[in-house]
Each structure stands twice: as C-alpha cells, then as structure tokens.
Prior knowledge:
Blueprint lengths: L11 H14 L7 H12 L12 H26 L7
Amino acid sequence: MRRASGPLPAYADAVGTFLTAVDAGDGNQPGGPAKAAAAILRLATDPDPPLRLQLGSDCVSLVEGKLGFVAKELDQWREWALSTDFRSA
Length: 89
C-alpha cells in the first residue's frame, strides 16, 4: 500500500479513522490468496462460469447482507415501483 509521506490534518477524522481500520485488518483477513488463485484457475476452465463469484466467507457475508437489504427495500417500495408501468392502475 502506498501512502502520503505524512498525515493531512484536514482529513484526520475521515481518512485517519479509515486507515486505522485498514491497518488493524492487515494480515487478519480470513481469505487465503493461494486458495483464491486456485479457485480462479479452476473457474477459468469451467464451461459455464458464474458472472460473479464471491471468494471468502467475508465476501459471501457482505453480499448476503446487501441482497437482504435490497430485498427489504424492494418490498417496501414495490407498490410505487409497479405503479410506473404504462398499464398500471
């Protein structure tokens, strides 16, 4: 990772907090790069590969959370969404 030679005080609250979190996670990620590379190589020869493939439990959890949020939001606004069809009531 490349960083500026010194911190910028104007961004300390936003970027500083983010960089602290990045530093804390460095080396503690659950994923294994060698396992990911092997999975990608296997996928490269699959005749029907997925359009998207989540690698790692952390990624799967994030996508599941996003899908749940989108499903809930869609359900909440379904009536409005469908009301824009040309032939809607």
